[in-house]
Amino acid sequence: MIIQDRMRVTGQQEIAKNIFEMKLTGKLVGEISSPGQFVHIRVSDSFEPLLRRPISIASIDKEKNEMTIIYRAEGRGTTMLSLKREDEEVDVLGPLGNGFPVNATASGETAILIGGGIGVPPLYELSKQLTANGVKCIHIFGFQTSDVSFYEEEFTRLGETYIATVDGSKGTEGFVTDVMKKIGDEFSTYYSCGPMPMLNAVQTTYAGKKGFLSFEQRMGCGIGACFACVCQTTEGTEKPYVKVCSDGPVFLAGVVSI
Amino acid sequence: MNRLKVELPGLQLKNPIMPASGCFGFGKEYGNLYDLSLLGAIMIKATTLETRFGNPTPRVAETASGMLNAIGLQNPGLQSVMENELPWLEQFDVPIIANVAGTETADYVEVAKTISTAPNVKALELNISCPNVKCGGITFGTDPQQAHDLTAAVKEVSEVPVYVKLSPNVTDIKEIAKAVEAGGADGITMINTLVGMRLDQKTGRPIIANITGGLSGPAVKPVAIKMVYEVSQVVSIPIIGMGGVAETADVIDFLSAGASAVAVGTANFVDPFICPKIIEELPAKLDELGVDHISELVGRSHRL
């Protein structure tokens, strides 16, 4: 169920250049049902900035009633969020959307998780849950440069992890697709989150494979009412369009017209 | 005595608060969050004769204390609204105000004729002010004669009272208001969004794919208040005021300016529970102002 919760900040730190890891506690955590869901955060109690910021959930700890979000402080809103300190309260709406289907990969099978930049965070909770189910996870992440890369150690603990950077400052020089070519396609499922050109490249490279893509789109309400975040679907899909916030953000590969 | 009850043509409102058209879909999303029967009324998303997919994305951009949108009247079309959306809303004890849009007079007339027969549709809101579609919409709302004629044509076929939604993007909104009143309008809803633009800092290009969008949110409230103040003094039909309402104090301002009821738009995106919160806070606000019934506030900005 979607709830509005005043969550308490239990941690906030910059883990890479302008990339923040924030921990929040509140009853909203109990409502989270799948990795890849997101929350809609009001960064100010005034009307400036006005709209909420959609941010994906990076990991959850139901026992501690705590969730971790990782975001890039880029514009005004996320910069304000990065100034919140421990014990401050934040107005959070969520959990929103439909996440990644963990059960689409069976125990003993292999899954490839491909992330780009700030699309990497939701894959962390996904990898934790897949790994716990006995799925072998291979991670391939792309970043612009080494100084904006994060969570390599955390992912390495869960499975093989490959990094590509555009400038070659870490791992393979180039894009995730350069790593994907080396890995081959001996896997059962792929899961991906990142910018649209990356999702398109991943979907094209793995044509015919079972995959799930998480999309990013400018949002208004976050709950499906305002029709800001619609995407056209491909021919032969049941619905003519989908809303990224409430029908997604995760879709079966091939459904959304990229 | 129910201190919040308001009676308007076709509408018995438990309270004067309703979500504005385009900010509430057809209610389903908010129906998952709270009981829609709490609301005074619901202004559903604009309905056109045919299914519309709307504009390309990006469709929204945030601005100082506001936002721009250019959704483009995306809706499932008249038939689907009649068969799916309106019957679903029947489970709630709440009057529906159906927003009617089109490209030419014949479209408006056909949608109005059919949608006004739905049992829970108690009034129509004629959308002659959408700034985000190429044909129709705002072109009817910026010319007094066209606004008059369209109102008259819709009045002729509608089974329920007709409210006309005015655009602020005109030289003199009073002229349009008087024209729709002369055309037979039972009420006025105002204001729709103000046309604006936002540019990308890096590229210099417009952010919204439609290039321009409609500005809404707290930023537009002073414009709306001024227009309600002016229009309420030149027409005798009631006004449902809107434009930047985000908290209970804003509702008081719109009533004082001359509105009889108030719609909440963009604020639903910021706080999906805003309508029931305002409704709950209103009685205490009336106490604070020393007012018994909410209608006592209407038009006090210019009352002698």
UniProtKB/TrEMBL annotation, chain A:
InterPro entries: Cyt_c3_hydrogenase_gsu, Dihydroorotate_DH_ele_sf, Dihydroorotate_DH_Fe-S-bd, Dihydroorotate_DHASE_ETsu, FAD-bd_FR_type, FNR_nucleotide-bd, OxRdtase_FAD/NAD-bd, PyrK_electron_transfer. This is Dihydroorotate dehydrogenase B (NAD(+)), electron transfer subunit. Heterotetramer of 2 PyrK and 2 PyrD type B subunits. Responsible for channeling the electrons from the oxidation of dihydroorotate from the FMN redox center in the PyrD type B subunit to the ultimate electron acceptor NAD(+). The keyword Flavoprotein applies. Residues 2-102 form the FAD-binding FR-type domain. It comes from the Bacteria. Its cofactor is FAD; [2Fe-2S] cluster. Keywords: 2Fe-2S, Electron transport, FAD, Flavoprotein, Iron, Iron-sulfur, Metal-binding, Pyrimidine biosynthesis, Transport. Pathway: Pyrimidine metabolism; UMP biosynthesis via de novo pathway; orotate from (S)-dihydroorotate (NAD(+) route): step 1/1. It holds the Pfam family NAD_binding_1. [2Fe-2S] cluster binds at residues 221, 226, 229, 245. Gene3D superfamilies: Dihydroorotate dehydrogenase, electron transfer subunit, Nucleotide-binding domain of ferredoxin-NADP reductase (FNR) module, Translation factors. The keyword Ribosomal protein does not apply. Binds 1 FAD per subunit. Belongs to the PyrK family. FAD binds at residues 53-56, 70-72, 77-78.
TrEMBL record, chain B:
It is found in: Cytoplasm. CDD domains: DHOD_1B_like. Keywords: Cytoplasm, Flavoprotein, FMN, Oxidoreductase, Pyrimidine biosynthesis. It comes from the Bacteria. It catalyses: (S)-dihydroorotate + NAD(+) = orotate + NADH + H(+); (S)-dihydroorotate + A = orotate + AH2. Binds 1 FMN per subunit. Residues 4-286 form the Dihydroorotate dehydrogenase catalytic domain. GO terms for molecular function: dihydroorotate dehydrogenase (NAD+) activity. FMN binds at residues 21, 45-46, 99, 127, 165, 191, 217, 243-244, 265-266. Its EC number is 1.3.-.-. Substrate binds at residues 45, 69-73, 127, 192-193. It is an enzyme of class 1 (oxidoreductase). The active site is at 130 (nucleophile). Its main location: cytoplasm. Catalyzes the conversion of dihydroorotate to orotate with NAD(+) as electron acceptor. Heterotetramer of 2 PyrK and 2 PyrD type B subunits. Belongs to the dihydroorotate dehydrogenase family. Type 1 subfamily. This is Dihydroorotate dehydrogenase. It comes from Sporosarcina highlanderae.
